């Protein structure tokens, strides 16, 4: 029997609620598909700061490095916003990404037929949406140096540095090419090369590297236009390839095409070593502890983990289908509900999905 060791980081806010559902689902899938999954739970984020004074303790990071994959819920809370930056839960995320060298973030955005009415956009705009955002994750302005505050000026000043070298751009382009080749072979590279030197390097490097694969059709778009096109005609996109900052913003925008940020999974990958699989959403402090969060983004992240991280494709597909079946029967969590839907709590939604596995 195959044996997997995964680390579960439940984190903060709604994290423990959606993680509980994910554990039950993974246990059932492992039984049905005859593999053994050891789920090691570790503290991460605000809760780890409370206990160890560090949002990403070494023990957690070391356990993640030794695992087959990491399933992460979400971190953060307004109460940590006044801490020094390196102590905040979000810095823990950056540390985890760096520690595992997770340079590629993959965010599939696919409209589920049963949820077309949940989108804030018209049905005809969103009905064929099926795109993937490939975002560079450990470079660019979030990591660039120098950064900081300038204190010896009359008015407060602060600055960051957006920096990439061509090797960083090439390795993320390679991932985008691999993904595009499994789909419609179209890559749209998004940058701001009309203004930024770093974006010009991005554009030139992507063009150069992509020209090696004659199957790929490459287009380029400025990020402001890409934001507009995602709302105007999102089905024109197949694979969107972009840098850390632009990818962060565009993938949340793309999330809303599907109806709720509570539906979107993601995978953060390295060329070898464990990946981190996590919902796109944050810790939703406004609804934490109420058992009303949508657990589906985390379940679909678990499905990506099974497929990409553990090579358990059948189990992954079963989980995706179970989610679709429950949604097509009209069951919804509050974030997706309209007047005609039956509104379920987080744990009730988990139970319905479990019953379809
Ligand atoms: P958020 O994604 O937590 O919430 C935005 C809105 O979406 C809220 O109204 C929330 O209730 C709703 N929402 C999010 N997930 C949901 C779900 N599963 N089911 C139902 N509704 C859901 O973003 P925010 O409010 O900007 O940030 C809250 C905290 O999360 C902050 O501390 C932020 O730094 C952190 N954050 C963490 C991550 C992460 O862990 N990867 C990502 C983004 C934000």
Automatic annotation (TrEMBL):
It is found in: Cytoplasm. SMART domains: Iso_dh. PROSITE patterns: IDH_IMDH. This is 3-isopropylmalate dehydrogenase. Keywords: Amino-acid biosynthesis, Branched-chain amino acid biosynthesis, Cytoplasm, Leucine biosynthesis, Magnesium, Manganese, Metal-binding, NAD, Oxidoreductase. Its EC number is 1.1.1.85. Homodimer. The gene is leuB. GO terms for biological process: L-leucine biosynthetic process. Mg(2+) binds at residues 224, 248, 252. The keyword DNA damage does not apply. One of its GO terms (cellular component) is cytosol. Catalyzes the oxidation of 3-carboxy-2-hydroxy-4-methylpentanoate (3-isopropylmalate) to 3-carboxy-4-methyl-2-oxopentanoate. The product decarboxylates to 4-methyl-2 oxopentanoate. It comes from Prochlorococcus marinus str. MIT 9302. InterPro entries: IsoCit/isopropylmalate_DH_CS, IsoPropMal-DH-like_dom, Isopropylmalate_DH. Substrate binds at residues 97, 107, 135, 224.
